[in-house]
Amino acid sequence: MPCVHFTGHLRRSGPSEPVDVRADTVGQALETIFQDYPELRPYVLDDHNRLRRNIAVFVDGYRSPRTDELAHALHAAARIHVVPALAGG
User: Fold this and answer.
1) What is the pLDDT of residues 47-89, one digit of tens each?
2) pLDDT digits 0-9 by tens, 27-48
3) CA 19 – CA 23 distance, rounded (Å)
4) Which of 37, 48, 47 is nearest to 10 (CA)?
5) Neighbours of 44 (CB within 10 A)
6) What are the distances in angstroms from CA 81 to CA 4, 41, 67, 89?
7) Under CATH, which architecture does the 3-84 domain have?
C-alpha cells in the first residue's frame, strides 16, 4: 500500500506520521488524506485543484514532472513525500 509522508509546516495541518493509503495515483492518495485532514488541502492544492507551486512531490525519491504530478501512477509499495519547496537567493 502506498505510504505518504509530509514534512515541515504541512505536519501542523496534516498527519504527523506517515500514512498508508489505497490509491492508484498521487492525486488519489492526497484526496484520501484530505478526507481526514481537510485543513491540509489549501496548503497543498490551489483553487484549481493543482499542486501549489511551493509544494514538491517525490515518489520513491524522484520528483514527478510538474505537468502530471497528481496523475503520477503509484505501485503498491510506493513512498510519497510531500514537502514545501525551498526558495532562496
Assistant:
1) 999 999 899 999 999 997 777 889 999 999 999 999 987 766 5
2) 999 999 999 999 999 999 999 9
3) 12
4) 37
5) 23
6) 6, 15, 17, 24
7) Roll (3.10)
